[in-house]
Amino acid sequence: MSDVLRELYQSVILDHSKKPRNFRAPEDASHHAEGFNPLCGDKVEIFVRLEDDVVADAAFQGSGCAISTASASLMTEAVRGKSRQEVEALFRRFRDVVTGASDGAPPLGKLEVLAGVRAFPMRVKCATLAWHALAAALDKPGERVSTE
Ligand code: ZN
Question: Which residues lie at CB < 5 A from ion ligand 1?
Fold first, then answer.
């Protein structure tokens, strides 16, 4: 990765961690779940509103490190308008990219900014926490998931 790209990615992560998008707890959410990453102390609660099995709204609340907050923020933007199956497929691809299991094809769009965590195994759980909580929300609403 070039230094210019690395700096761009870091600035996007910083922006989303300082000004997280969709940081709220919508009362009309149809699904929600909590996630906890004991390794880092990250906590996240995910709220989703499904309409005809499509994500009409996604939001989160919680506290955690810059990576976990930025990842949750980027995720809520990325899944909006996607079907449950598309969200599951995106999660699998995202997880493969941040764990280094995949070289990133097909491209992940804006989520690509988190690909750098693959060099820091401790950080992978920060980046995937919100996704695990989202998967739990869609699968077993109300569940509390831990990354361990
Ligand atoms: Zn973290």
Answer: 40, 42, 65, 68, 126
